[in-house]
Write a structure and sequence with these properties.
Two copies of one chain form a homodimer.
Chain A: H1 13-31, E1 34-35, H2 36-43, H3 47-59, E2 63-67, E3 86-90, E4 95-102, E5 106-113, E6 118-125, H4 133-148, E7 156-164, E8 167-169, E9 174-178, E10 183-186, H5 188-196, E11 200-204, H6 205-216, E12 225-231, E13 233-240, E14 243-244, H7 275-279, H8 281-287, H9 295-307, H10 311-335, E15 339-344, H11 345-364, H12 367-370, E16 374-376, H13 384-399, H14 401-410
Parallel strand pairs in A: 4-7, 7-11, 12-15, 15-16
Antiparallel strand pairs in A: 1-3, 2-3, 4-5, 5-6, 8-9, 9-10, 12-13, 13-14
Chain lengths: 411, 411
């Protein structure tokens, strides 16, 4: 099904080895400690090739090898019974990234090791309201410095991954527009790179949510999946054919700003009747008679009140749930995913009014894509985005293990 | 940016050679006769490797080599002036496919050679109305047999590609639903394979439209593009990150059935206020006071009347144009494409009411994705879909040239 990438270059044998190093490192990063015999089977390479590749990664300090202990690994080609196999383990303490999740009402900064282990983290909460981007950057710089001070000597910091609820230019981490933070053309990538003294990659929160859920969550092993992130507005992170869908510059997924009710409410984007005007947190608060800007905690309060029988809260939840079902059907008709993950506020709405979501979904979605999709909640809970930010920061290393490590240790 | 495809296998050196054969054949299929020296430069392989690869393809009868005549190719590394380079040319007469475009009001069957040359074609027109799938299949079988009778001995028929305006299951070419044809769960792939005695691949018309425009049309060299096909309903063919977006089973792109006007008209899909209820051909005919089912010819008549000053036709065109702009903005906000191609009836509407389309688009699309997109008409005109059907049929050969050719000549 591959369509020609014009000007595609031929491949060379030396590329193969680099590709195999990447595949092996990525495998243990995702799956954790893995017996060499299993790597041989899974990667379809012979025993000595796996031994050579592992040796290179050990020498680079990216993985370590230990004799298998807890389990004895059976090799099918051998009839001599079980024999121990070396287990390849990612060097979580030695190879780390900083992961940052910038929300409208929260900020999380964490140190995450190769393999995905959260080594330490700091969480802050805020009331909603415009926060100056330079203040947020400075705060991240300070928290980041505190976390970096904990890193033992000899460890390598690959870089920082940052999640922001807005449209991010992939090339340089410029936040083009983050309406719920009140940011426009904010040089988040450049400022954080200076403040932290690290390479910084910035991504959209929903894009990073689906990335994490795809690597190690509700969409693991799935090639077509959508993460709908409900934080103030609504954004979609999309995996299509096994790859992230970013669009030309990384702005794809602004499904919260697809018109679904043209005679409806004005949207802060300048249009009218966007999906998030009916289905976003602020609409819920308004209908429930709550103060705006309550964030995830506020949504949980309304959901609890609805369950407790408060009619206004129930009506507000039902309204949002109905539009959630309709808009989810639009996404399913357009993209034919196998999984749709409802994250953030949407998870709360789905939890207390799932029947309404599904009823509206069922009348709007076409039969064929409908019968193929599961609507679920995130396996990584509220950490999908944070974990995704770490995955973003690990990506260069995972793609070109020795090249990228050389860059980082030389600097 | 690659996310792990779980269970990805390692690559081996022998794969590299097969990949390079594929890359070379695909290059001359798309670009036509190409000097060897140019292939060396473009593919980034050395001269002797290109010579070996070309030799294998010549021996298989897929390309031929001729001394460069019209132009003398200059080799930059040589200071001895120009020297002739062999030109590698696809064997269009020897390697062919059958391409079929099934429309609501038309049927086209063509013989297309490697490199994209249309060798012969037969076109039929119909009035709109339910056409039994078995009758259509029988007609294609007869026309196909007539075209196949022209094929000279020694030529190889790779298979047939078929475009249908409906949801097609990728796996077996089953048409799950083609509402405008009145088909449901129609075994088009299986029946045509029997009737033609060839391997048959079936695809959605919009998917094949974008495929053709991506390979050799308005989206050539573009990694993120959408083809909006207006034939009775509206469907989208999507290229994301250089690859076709099909979704889990190939049903993606049903943007005509995304709700955009929830209080609006009932849709034949069972939902209400779908985009195509406001923007499809039938809505245009209804508003213009024309009989339904006029197809592309009918749309052209209304467009001409609007240009000629007929108020009812003008109002009908303006209505559809306005919803076309709004829905196109939804697609652009969701996918951040570089190019949106308006095909079929939409091309006609855009031609006479482009200003209305763009005005509505501009107020609905977000600034960042808006500034990156071009809205254009197909370079291949009404043949995008037919050419895409041929590309679909060539795909197996282009991916695995020697393997697939061996299969076809052995059978």
């Amino acid at each position: 099904m591959t369509v020609l990438a014009q000007g595609a270059r031929g491949a060379r044998s030396e590329d193969v080895r680099r590709g195999n190093l990447s595949t092996l490192l990525r495998y243990v990063h995702v799956h954790g400690p893995t017996a060499r015999s299993r790597l041989t089977a899974v990667l379809g390479l012979n025993r000595s090739t796996i031994g050579d590749l592992t040796g290179e990664l050990v020498a680079a300090g990216l993985v370590r090898e230990e004799p298998g202990r807890a389990e004895r690994v059976h090799d099918r080609s051998s009839s001599s019974g079980g024999r121990p196999s070396y287990v390849v383990t990612p060097e979580s303490e030695r190879v780390q990234v900083l992961a940052v999740d910038v929300g409208v009402t929260h900020l999380t900064v964490a140190r995450i090791g190769l393999g995905g282990a959260v080594l330490s983290r700091i969480d802050r909460s805020y009331r909603r309201g415009a926060r100056r981007q330079r203040d947020v950057t400075a705060t991240i710089g300070k928290i980041g410095a505190a976390l970096l001070a904990e890193v033992e000597s000899g460890a390598v910091l690959i870089g920082a991954g940052v999640a922001v609820p807005g449209m991010v230019r992939r090339r340089d981490g410029q936040v083009r527009q983050a309406p719920n933070l009140g940011w426009k053309d904010a040089p988040v990538g450049a400022e954080l790179a200076r403040a932290l003294g690290l390479p910084v990659w910035v991504g959209n929160d929903a894009d990073l949510g689906i990335r994490a859920e795809h690597v190690r969550g509700a969409a693991a092993g799935v090639d077509d999946a959508v993460y709908l992130s409900g934080h103030s507005g609504i954004g979609a992170g999309i995996i299509a054919g096994g790859l992230p869908l970013g669009g030309r510059a990384g702005y794809a997924g602004e499904v919260g700003h697809t018109v679904i009710n043209p005679g409806g409410l004005p949207c802060h984007c300048g249009s009218q009747g966007c999906w998030e005007t009916e289905c976003g947190e602020e609409r819920l608060f308004e209908l429930a008679g709550r103060p705006l800007g309550g964030g995830l905690a506020g949504v949980r309060e309304v959901a609890a009140a609805a369950v407790g029988g408060e009619p206004v809260a129930r009506a507000a939840i039902e309204h949002v749930a109905s539009w959630l079902g309709r808009g989810t059907a639009n996404v399913v008709n357009a993209l034919n995913p196998e999984v749709v993950i409802l994250g953030g506020a949407l998870e709360e709405v789905f939890g207390v009014a799932g029947a309404t979501v599904l009823a509206e979904f069922e009348v709007t979605a076409l039969a064929a894509p409908q019968e193929q999709v599961r609507i679920v909640t995130p396996h990584l809970g509220p950490d999908s985005t944070l974990v995704g930010a770490a995955e973003l920061a690990f990506e260069a290393l995972l793609s070109e293990p020795l090249l990228e490590l050389g860059r980082r240790t030389a600097s």
